[in-house]
Structure formats: structure tokens, C-alpha cells
């Protein structure tokens, strides 16, 4: 860009290094292709289906929360006015309600004082990373391929990230142990391991209970914290699911990153962290990690918006603190989408044909995503051709690996944002692309 007017020009080189990192722009190409081909069917976004939202309900939830403040919590009208209109408690005002839901939905006994209500799970990641990573030798380990929200946050904070390859069932405890040993031998300090055990983004894998227990053992042996992120756990056929790491954690090894984006709605931007670890000061005094996160949060977002908390609090109250049950219709919807996608792929690409061509996919039991492996490079060029010539969009899996280091032949298909009819048509178009490029 050339501009002769005497405006201030900043040198990109003097901005924070993360801003020039390809990681920070990883989803841009996908967004740009989506805007150029608006009629294409997109398996790209991991957003919840909007047909499940009702605008009128927002007022009902707000009312439910207001009634709770007056009738159950015993607040006066003046206090309620303050709670809804003012700056609020840094770590949130619905922490007790969230703790009640966690007990019902996940069997997690969380002391409300150990909860930090955040601006989405994303802020939770940022707070936790800022607090835990103090030394340049500290390393964040991530189960790989990995959600870019955490690697992006780490990059913003200049935290070194090391990818630990997943096995077919998700995070690999043995690979974690070996990576920790190798890093220690190289003089590094592995500090925490980030993992999405339930229907991970991007692969859709779900970690078996035995591996969850192994992860906890490895974390204990290696003196590592586990950062468990769990936005998709409710979206299963049975609606019950496996125990979270946090529910299995008896030694406070797990910092749990919660999100209401998929179980309530993302527009509220409300999430939370369970940070129940004790922190010992040099003078022997003890605090909770949540208290330390509060200091950071006070300097980042001050507090999570009271109105957003009120609506989410109202949803928890309305659904009797049972979001898993309340999400049954959503879970059924996503299950149908998953079934349609798997059925269409299977019908259009029968086993013998796809095996001969080197095409395969995993069969998740829930969640928003599945992985398709191809014999050809699934890169931006193929994505462009896919959108232009076949009207179908997907996410190259290499977006979720370090640049140039994995996922070259895989794509992520997200099934959450489409209707069953769109999924069926999208699958037909996708197979058309595959017919042309690899069959
Ligand atoms: C694994 C994972 N964690 C966190 C988030 C975002 O959570 P929030 O919207 O609460 O910041 C997402 C959203 O796509 C996700 O896939």
C-alpha cells in the first residue's frame, strides 16, 4: 500500500512477533474462501447450529436469574441493580450456579471459590497460561493436532509449544512421557499438557477411560499439570459420556477449562476455569490458583459481563442445573448429522473402493468433527478447487499442526452448522471432488 499522506506508519517488524506468525492467520484462507463462494456448502465452521436458538428465550433466562437473585439469594432491589449494572466480582457472580451444574453434569465437586467465570474458554486459556508460564525454559505440551485457540494464546505470550502426536484414540500417554523426558534432558521445563479428551477439535477422537487414567499417572510422575478443555462432551448418542479427567483427578493435577459456547450459546461469551490448585507463597501463606488468576483477569477483562453471566445463570436455573439433559435435542440433532454424513460417505464410497484409493475416515461417537484421510495433499489449492468447482468447503488438517509438520493428507469435516439435507448434498459434492482428485 502506498499513501503519500503524512499519517503514522508502524513497522510490522516492531510489532509483537506473533502478529507475523503464520499460526495467527491460519483460519484466514478458509474464511476468505468461504466469503468468495457463499453458495458453497461449508463443513468448515465449528459453530453450533443456529436453528436451535430462540431469541425470545433470552428475556426468559434474564428473568429467571433476576428472580433467583431476589427469591433464593435474598438480594434487595438495590443490590440486584448493582449486580446487573455495575462492575462485578472479578472471578464472576454465577460461580455457585456453575458449581451446581458441574456436580450434576460431570460429577465434579468444585468449590465455587476455585471457579473463575471467564469471557469464553478462550480467556480462561490466556489466564492459565499467563499464570503458569514464568520462565523462558517452561514449555507447553499440546496433544497434536491441536485447537488453534491454545497454540495462538501461547504464541501471544511467547510460550514455547511442543506438539505430542496423538494415537488413533486421542492423546497418547506414552508419547507424553517420552516427550517430557526428552525435553527435560534438553534443559527445558515441561509445565502443562493441553488436551481435549472428549470429541476433540480437530479430530473428533474420544480418549478411552484407561488412557485418561494413564494421563493422570504420567502427569503425577512427571509433575505436569493437565489442561483439560471440554466443549463437546455432551454431544453423544447416549448423553452420558466418559468421566472427565477432572472427575478422575484426586490430586488436583487438572485445570479444567469450561465453555458454555456449545452447551448454551457462543454469543454470551461465557466460560470458566476450575483452578483448585493451592499456591504457596514464599512466606508460607496459601492461596488458590483461582485467586492468582483473578489478579490477571482484573487486568485483562476486569470481569465477565454481568448481563452475559445473568443469561447463562438463568439458563442453568431454568434447566435445573442439568445442561447435559437440556442439550439432548442439540445432541440428537448433531448425532443425526453425524449419522447422515457417515452414511452418505459409506454409500458413495463403499469400503473396497475407498480402501483401494487410500481414503478413510474415523467414526466418532459424538461431537462436531470427523477426520477424512486422502491419498493426495489436502492443502489450500485443493480447498480452492473444491469450493470453486464442486461447491464444498472443508478445513485442511495441516492448520492444526505446526507449519509444514503434519496433517498434509487429512481434512476436518465439521457437521455442527449444517442441516441433514445440506450434509447429504455436501457429502455428494465432496465425493465428486474425491472422484476427480483421487479415485
Ligand atoms: C477445543 C475448543 N476449546 C475452546 C473453544 C472456544 O471456547 P469459547 O467460545 O468458550 O472461547 C472451542 C471453540 O471452537 C474449541 O473447539
Automatic annotation (TrEMBL):
Occurrences of domain Aminotransferase class I/classII large (ranges): 84-430
Keyword Membrane belongs to the record: no
Domain of life: Bacteria
Cofactors, names only: pyridoxal 5'-phosphate
Keyword Transit peptide tagged: no
GO molecular function annotations of the record: transaminase activity
Keywords: Aminotransferase, Pyridoxal phosphate, Transferase
Pfam family, one: Aminotran_1_2
Cited CDD domains: AAT_like
Name of the protein in question: PLP-dependent aminotransferase family protein
Organism: Streptomyces sirii
Amino acid at each position: 500500500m502506498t499513501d503519500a499522506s503524512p499519517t503514522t506508519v508502524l513497522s510490522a517488524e516492531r510489532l509483537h512477533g506473533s502478529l507475523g506468525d503464520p499460526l495467527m492467520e491460519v483460519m484466514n484462507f478458509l474464511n476468505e474462501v468461504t466469503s468468495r463462494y457463499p453458495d458453497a456448502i461449508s463443513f468448515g465452521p465449528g459453530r453450533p447450529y443456529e436453528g436451535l436458538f430462540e431469541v425470545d428465550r433470552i428475556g426468559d433466562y434474564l428473568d429467571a436469574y433476576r428472580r433467583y437473585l431476589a427469591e433464593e439469594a435474598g438480594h434487595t432491589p438495590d443490590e440486584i441493580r448493582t449486580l446487573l449494572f455495575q462492575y462485578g466480582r472479578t472471578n464472576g457472580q454465577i460461580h455457585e450456579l456453575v458449581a451446581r451444574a458441574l456436580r450434576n453434569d460431570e460429577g465434579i465437586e468444585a468449590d465455587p471459590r476455585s471457579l473463575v467465570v471467564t469471557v469464553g474458554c478462550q480467556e480462561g486459556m490466556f489466564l492459565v497460561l499467563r499464570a503458569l508460564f514464568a520462565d523462558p525454559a517452561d514449555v507447553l505440551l499440546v496433544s497434536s493436532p491441536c485447537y488453534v485457540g491454545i497454540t495462538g494464546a501461547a504464541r501471544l505470550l511467547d510460550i514455547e509449544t511442543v506438539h505430542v502426536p496423538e494415537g488413533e484414540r486421542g492423546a497418547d500417554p506414552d508419547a507424553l512421557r517420552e516427550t517430557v523426558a526428552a525435553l527435560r534432558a534438553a534443559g527445558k521445563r515441561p509445565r502443562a499438557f493441553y488436551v481435549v479428551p472428549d470429541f476433540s477439535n480437530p479430530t473428533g477422537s474420544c480418549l478411552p477411560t484407561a488412557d485418561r487414567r494413564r494421563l493422570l499417572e504420567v502427569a503425577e510422575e512427571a509433575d505436569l499439570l493437565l489442561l483439560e478443555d471440554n466443549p463437546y462432551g455432551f454431544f453423544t448418542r447416549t448423553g452420558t459420556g466418559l468421566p472427565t479427567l477432572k472427575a478422575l483427578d484426586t490430586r488436583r493435577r487438572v485445570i479444567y477449562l469450561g465453555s458454555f459456547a456449545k452447551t448454551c450459546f457462543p454469543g454470551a461469551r461465557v466460560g470458566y476455569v476450575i483452578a483448585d490448585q493451592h499456591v504457596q507463597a514464599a512466606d508460607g501463606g496459601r492461596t488458590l490458583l483461582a485467586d492468582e488468576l483473578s489478579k490477571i483477569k482484573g487486568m485483562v477483562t476486569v470481569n465477565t459481563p454481568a448481563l452475559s453471566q445473568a443469561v447463562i445463570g438463568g439458563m442453568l436455573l431454568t434447566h435445573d442445573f442439568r445442561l447435559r439433559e437440556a442439550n439432548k435435542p442439540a445432541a440428537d440433532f448433531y448425532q443425526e448429522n453425524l449419522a447422515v454424513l457417515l452414511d452418505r460417505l459409506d454409500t458413495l464410497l463403499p469400503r473396497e473402493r475407498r480402501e483401494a484409493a487410500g481414503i478413510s475416515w474415523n467414526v466418532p461417537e459424538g461431537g462436531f468433527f470427523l477426520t477424512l484421510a486422502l491419498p493426495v495433499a489436502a492443502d489450500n489449492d485443493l480447498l480452492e478447487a473444491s469450493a470453486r468447482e464442486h461447491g464444498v468447503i472443508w478445513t485442511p488438517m495441516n492448520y492444526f499442526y505446526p507449519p509444514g509438520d503434519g496433517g498434509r493428507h487429512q481434512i476436518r469435516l465439521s457437521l455442527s452448522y449444517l442441516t441433514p439435507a445440506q450434509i447429504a448434498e455436501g457429502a455428494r459434492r465432496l465425493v465428486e471432488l474425491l472422484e476427480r482428485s483421487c479415485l
